[in-house]
Amino acid sequence: MLQRELRQIPLTAFLAVAGILLPQIFHLFGLGAIFLPMFLPVMLGGLILTWRFALLLAVITPLISWLFTGMPPLVPPVLPVLIVELLVVNAILSLLHVHLKWNLWAALLLAILTDRLLLLALVSVIAPLFGWRHPLFSLALVSSGLPGIALQMVVLPLTVRLIRERWKLRLE
Predict the structure, then answer these.
(1) Residue 21 half-sphere exposure toward CB, CA atoms < 13 A
(2) Alpha helices for the chain (secondary structure H)
(3) Can you tell me whether residue 31 is helix, strand or coil?
(4) Angle between helices 39-48 and 104-126 (to 10 degrees)
(5) How far apart are CA 24 and CA 34, in angstroms?
(6) What's the distance, Cα to Cα, between the start and end of the chain in Å?
(7) Is the pTM value of this prediction over 0.90?
(8) Is 98 within 8 Å of 48 (Cβ atoms)?
(9) pLDDT tens string 58-109
(10) Which phi and psi angles does 116 have, rounded to 5°?
(11) Mean pLDDT for the chain overall
């Protein structure tokens, strides 16, 4: 294993723990669903980790959270949907920003847009299976995460900048 990869192991573990604890804090105040707190540390990983660790983080964070807290739930199928979302978002972020050196904002915007379209498609298929047939249900669920997207657009670029400037974290 390369030295670069070895340095990513504790960082991945730290971000996974943050991805488990942060939603608990947000849910204490009833803000979990709208602010998408698990996305913050997981997407941060997508912006600073190589694709293997970014994808690992996207899978283990919601799975371990579910094992320890029961959240996100299996029924309705929030857990599998969230895993798919985080996998796609982190694949985009890591491949574009870390590997192909795209601008952070371009990678972040593309990842968020892709995530929202993917969620809309998944919910449009899954919701009727649970009896939720209102034509605006899927759109309402997708748009309910807009405060979380705003938080991502503010917190993630600032955090990446802080990490790179203060701690001189270079994973290249």
Answers:
(1) 6
(2) 3-28, 32-35, 39-48, 51-69, 78-93, 104-126, 137-143, 146-166
(3) coil
(4) 130
(5) 13
(6) 15
(7) yes
(8) yes
(9) 999 999 999 999 999 998 899 999 999 999 999 999 999 999 999 999 999 9
(10) -65, -40
(11) 93
